[in-house]
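Quick review question:
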């Protein structure tokens, strides 16, 4: 584990952190230090706090105790007005894709670029083509979300997450709505993209088949605590 105070190495750096939903402490004494470029799972039973932890990391839920940094942002000092800047450094992928249903894929991506300050029309078009190519969806950019399969919608959502060259992708059960074969495709895609883009990924999942197929490191939420383990330990 890198030293906890070295901001150059860690993309996520939580020390003694407390994660609270309403008045209920979900996770306590969280020490989590994830290096830049690292791929890791986020596991734990339903209600164990995976989504709450991710929400703290993307600025949706305030950090209530201890200290925390994500992509160089101090979570304790994070103001509402800083959240868009933090989100620019992150890519967020959800189980239900969360594409805007009333516009095609190209316009879904354009919406994000415009909302994050891009102005040049040609640069926006080029970036959209680039990320859609990287997920194999360039020919589908004029399709509406409902005209695509679940796997294709998730590919588009991953392309959207890549638009601003994120240093970290936070994925909350990205394969939860997909069949096993499509889940494997999405998993391979995420792993390859993370490597190519030197981007860290934290991916919440309940899918132990996938973890077995793609072993690695996992952050486990259990009994209000967080620990880090090698996924091989889960199958001993
Ligand atoms: N908006 C909320 N208000 C109050 N309590 C909440 C809220 N969201 C989650 N909780 C509670 O916080 C705890 C952790 O929930 P969380 O969604 O983080 O778990 P999870 O591990 O992501 O679960 P799952 O695997 O089912 O998605 C649960 O006890 C849950 O009931």
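Suggested answer, residue by residue:
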């Amino acid at each position: 584990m890198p030293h906890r105070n070295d901001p150059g190495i860690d993309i996520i750096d939580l020390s003694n952190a407390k994660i609270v939903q309403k008045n209920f402490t979900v996770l306590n004494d969280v020490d989590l230090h994830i290096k830049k470029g690292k791929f890791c799972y986020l596991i734990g039973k339903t209600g164990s706090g995976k989504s709450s932890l991710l929400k703290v990391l993307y600025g949706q839920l305030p950090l209530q105790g201890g200290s925390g940094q994500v992509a160089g942002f101090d979570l304790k000092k994070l103001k509402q007005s800083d959240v868009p800047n933090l989100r620019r450094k992150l890519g967020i992928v959800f189980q239900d894709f969360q594409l805007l249903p009333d516009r095609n894929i190209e316009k879904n991506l354009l919406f994000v670029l415009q909302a994050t300050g891009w102005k040049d029309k040609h640069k926006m078009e080029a970036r959209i083509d680039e990320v859609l190519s990287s997920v194999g969806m360039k020919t589908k950019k004029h399709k509406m979300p409902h005209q695509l399969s679940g796997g294709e919608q998730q590919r588009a959502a991953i392309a959207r997450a890549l638009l601003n060259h994120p240093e970290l992708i936070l994925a909350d059960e990205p394969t939860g709505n997909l069949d096993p074969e499509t889940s494997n495709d999405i998993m391979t895609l995420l792993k390859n993209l993370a490597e190519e883009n030197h981007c860290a990924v934290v991916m919440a999942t309940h899918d132990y088949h996938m973890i077995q197929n793609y072993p690695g490191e996992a952050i486990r939420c259990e009994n209000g605590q967080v620990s880090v383990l090698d996924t091989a330990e889960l199958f001993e």
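Why it works: The pocket of adenosine-5'-triphosphate is lined by residues 21-22, 24, 26, 44, 46-52, 221 (CB under 6 Å). The first strand starts at residue 10 and ends at 21.
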